Amino acid sequence: MIIKKIVLILAMALIFSACGEKNITKQETPIQKEEQPKEVQPEENKKEYIRYEGKFELPVKGSTGFTTIPRELFIEPELEADILGTIPGGKPFEIVEEIEGWWKIRYEQQEGYVESSYCMINLPDVVPSIVYDGINTYASKDRSSRKDIPGVTGQLIYPGTDYNERFSQERFILPVLYGTAKKIHNIQQEALENGETLVVYEGYRPLSAQEVMVDGLENLAYNDEEVLAGIESPPWSMDWFAGRGVSNHQYGYAIDLSLALIKDQRMEYSGDYEYLEVTKHSDFQMPTAINELSTRSIVFTEPVKPSSSEEWKNAKLAPTMTEYAIRLQKYCTDHGLTPLASEWWHFNDLAEEDKMTNTDFTGQYVYKSLRSKPPVKLGD
Q1: What count of other Cβ atoms lies within 10 Å of the Cβ of residue 149?
Q2: Residue 215 lies in a domain
């Protein structure tokens, strides 16, 4: 009996002890305060980008230039200055600065000045808002009477892409003469104001590529009566669609392009600058698909002298010209380009013609690499 009482007392003691511990624990638990909203702190070191205001959408500084004919490299931006050497034709270089008709450039670890007027510039470096599609550098869309051209259609005609450090990705190489680039920029700015964009397919085209395309079309035409009838249809002839010899594309003052509606866009950044990039577009209805080499693509009912900047103004539009082909033509002609009578997509900058045709440049080079760098503020 005594033992039972002892056990009962010990059990009760343990129960009271446990209750006491629970009370202590409960008392020692701190009261949770209501969480206060955190104060939003301004981001430190957030980079502020510049919207460039100048001849182009991005500065010329840091873009790639190309020699057409050999160019003397001067120690100062004047013809009387000492000559550091001569840059061969067909070479890429980095443009460091622009000074009134001159570029300060970097070529193979050497810096000096060249006259910019006889050089080409990589158009995507300075007008990045344009949609670029260098079709002949990966899968040509050349056709005739809607028929594939063997050895041409779907083929890579010449290499034309490289890693572009300015945009941190692989990009098309699309050279045009510097004066022509300024006009294309102005056309694009007007198109952007209307919610539209240029789609550029080709500027400079190597002569070797031209010969491949002409050979392919001739071979097809002489073995297909329908194709032959589509290009040899008076007053039109083969030369209007694929001429032999040096053409405006080889001189760098021709451009193949179309027009599209902008569906989506965003701001992107390069170096110290911001620029617009079109991320989604919808092509407008044109007379034909791009590079349909036949009378289906004619602009006027009759040929117009390609070297005349005025004759086209009195020509009669072909009935196949669509609303947006006419709109594209107006954009281009309002800014100094001249239409080619046989191709709705082709325009020439005739202001550059005399300068280049009086040189020995024949488009013999294939430009395979870039020297582009992200643009930084002058003085940085």
Answers
A1: 25
A2: yes
